[in-house]
Amino acid sequence: MLTYPDINPVAFELGFIKVHWYGLMYLAAFASAYLLATWRAKQPGSGWTTQQVSDLIFYGAMGVVIGGRMGYVLFYNFPQFLEDPLWLFRVWEGGMSFHGGLLGVLTAILIFCKIHKKSFFDVGDFGAPFVPLGLMFGRIGNFIGGELWGRVADPEHVPWAMVFPRADEFARHPSQLYQAGLEGFLLFVILWFYSSRPRPQKAVSAMFLIGYGVFRTIAEFFREPDAHIGFDMFGWMTRGQMLSLPMIVFGLILLIWAYRNGTNSGAKKA
């Protein structure tokens, strides 16, 4: 059994301002997306300018923060919102949802497309490969904060299990790191190389939906369900798995549609 590295959630202080590790992880997420997107935009035939990339990252960041918070409130803790509506705005107390963030980003893309006269799926296919690294940083932030811990594990069979002080005295899976590796790094590698060649329009977006849905579903088997929710359908599915299932189904339909009816994107990627 490993000892949980109880890290101070505050990375450093600037006078009366406290800079939290979780905030730095968000900064790293948006910075990595901007750098990778800018690099691809500069490749011949990309069809993108650095100004468009800057605008896309800005709209995406707004979608992540607003959608992520609203999604957590609606999907995971709506009763608390009814009791205390102002809790929606107290983001420093924690509570962000990937699926809500995804809906927020999709809305942001629609706005971006209207302003820049781009196709929705052209933007989706261009931006999808940059998302997983942001998810990786986010899960690392969860680990540093000692939140969203995993299920109880037997240290004899899971020697890397650890006790999370904010949970209880039992050794648990560090499921935040599982998610960082699966939904983050591994999905990034898959999408980066898959999108390095011209693909039918919608295909890269579809691969993101399928990949995230599958990896999130796998990781949820090791993650402790939210205490106030527990298990949903059939008594073993978590809320995260239920929300990921439509992503997988829609992603498969979109992928089949892309290869049957789509034409290769004209943008060359490196």
Count of strand segments: 4
Q: What is the overall pLDDT average?
A: 89
Q: Name the beta content range.
A: under 5%
Helix content: 55-70%
User: How many distinct helices?
Assistant: 9
* Major sheet summary line: 2 strands, antiparallel
Number of domains: 1
Order of helices and strands: EEHHHHHHEEHHH
First-to-last CA distance: 43 Å
Task: Please outline the helices and strands.
Layout: E1 10-14, E2 17-20, H1 21-41, H2 50-76, H3 78-83, H4 98-116, H5 120-127, H6 131-144, E3 162-163, E4 171-172, H7 175-194, H8 203-220, H9 239-261
Antiparallel strand pairs: 1-2, 3-4
Helix pairs in contact: 1-2, 1-6, 2-4, 6-7, 7-8, 8-9
Describe the structure.
- The chain has 270 residues and is mainly alpha-helical.
- The chain has 9 helices and 4 strands, in the order ββααααααββααα.
- The protein has one domain (10-261).
- Strands 1-2 form a two-stranded antiparallel sheet. It has a two-stranded antiparallel sheet with strand order 3-4.
- Helix 7 (175-194) packs antiparallel against helix 8.
- Mean pLDDT is 89; it is low at 266-270.
- GO terms for molecular function: phosphatidylglycerol-prolipoprotein diacylglyceryl transferase activity.
- Pathway: Protein modification; lipoprotein biosynthesis (diacylglyceryl transfer).
How would you describe this structure in keywords?
two-stranded antiparallel ribbon, phosphatidylglycerol-prolipoprotein diacylglyceryl transferase activity, mainly alpha, 9 helices, disordered C terminus, 270 residues, 58% helix, globular
